[in-house]
Specification:
Elements: E1 2-9, H1 13-24, E2 29-33, H2 58-72, E3 75-78, E4 81-87, E5 90-95, E6 100-108, E7 112-114, H3 119-125, E8 130-131, H4 134-137, E9 145-149, H5 153-163, E10 168-172, E11 184-187, E12 191-193, E13 223-225, H6 237-255
Parallel strand pairs: 1-2, 1-6, 2-3, 6-13, 8-11, 9-10, 9-11
Antiparallel strand pairs: 4-5, 5-6, 7-12
Helix pairs in contact: 1-2, 1-6
């Protein structure tokens, strides 16, 4: 069974930043990612608020941060974490392939996942494709009619992007009927914290976010949280990176 000083759950900006700080402090560190590194920023074509880069794509930015973490010595393993259990002297992490990893400290950086359409709206969509990423799939519907479900900032971003590709873009609420001439449905109705694996380990609020202050300490000693999964008021790349650095420093201090 593998054993590490620190396990980081999630390979977005928060998780990879935490890994960079952890390995630079001399701690053996593994990053566990269930899907693909980067989280939601890989869907962003132009990031204009990352210090030092006036314009950088989410894919390019995360590629650089991942390479930096690996070059410094962090290990990245693609596994879905199903459960984290506290035990004498540390924690046991169970993956979806019955993989077990022992660690002395954990940094939770799982981020969030897109909120899905209701069953009723999925039925209304019928055989039309449903996408949760306009930058990923928008080009497939060049010159066609599409609908964006949602009215928050994310939905406005999707609409603006698709208007440069598609013939017509409808923008509707999640309880409205989908226009009959729409060829595809793009969903932007909010996000849900991906904190299932931490239930029973740390305190989670009614919306699914892990309760922690600016020091990134959870209610479980030795477990810290960074990024969008934490209770906070600002969720941006720079605040995620800041959380990652703080969480790693606090984990190193805990281990000492």
């Amino acid at each position: 069974m593998e054993k590490y000083d620190i396990a980081v759950i999630g390979a977005g900006i928060a998780g990879l930043t935490a890994a960079i700080y952890a390995v630079r402090a001399g701690k053996s560190t593994i990053v566990l990612e269930g899907k693909m590194e980067g989280g939601q920023i890989i869907n962003t074509i132009n990031i204009e608020n990352w210090p030092g880069d006036m314009r950088v794509s989410g894919v390019d930015l995360i590629r650089k941060v991942k390479a930096q973490a690996e070059e410094l010595g962090a290990k990245i393993d693609y596994v879905n974490v199903e459960k984290i259990s506290a035990m004498d002297g540390g924690f046991e992490i169970l993956g979806d392939m019955d993989e077990k990893i022992l660690v002395s400290s954990v940094i939770l950086a799982m981020g969030t996942n897109p909120r899905k359409l209701s069953d009723a709206m999925m039925k209304d969509a019928g055989k039309r494709p449903v996408s949760y990423c306009a930058t990923c799939d928008g080009a497939l519907y060049k010159g066609k009619n599409v609908v964006v479900v949602g009215h928050g900032n994310s939905a406005k971003h999707e609409v603006k992007y698709l208007e440069g590709i598609c013939n017509k873009v409808y923008n509707i609420h999640h309880d409205e009927k989908i226009p009959e001439d729409a060829d595809a449905v793009f969903v932007a109705i909010g996000r849900i914290p991906a904190t299932e694996c931490a239930k029973g380990l740390v305190e989670i609020d009614g919306c699914g976010y892990i309760v922690a202050g600016e020091d990134c300490h959870t209610t479980q000693p030795g477990v810290f949280v960074a990024g969008d999964a934490r209770t906070k008021t600002v969720r941006q790349l720079v605040t995620a990176a800041g959380d990652g650095a703080v969480a790693a420093e606090e984990a190193v201090r805990y281990l000492a």
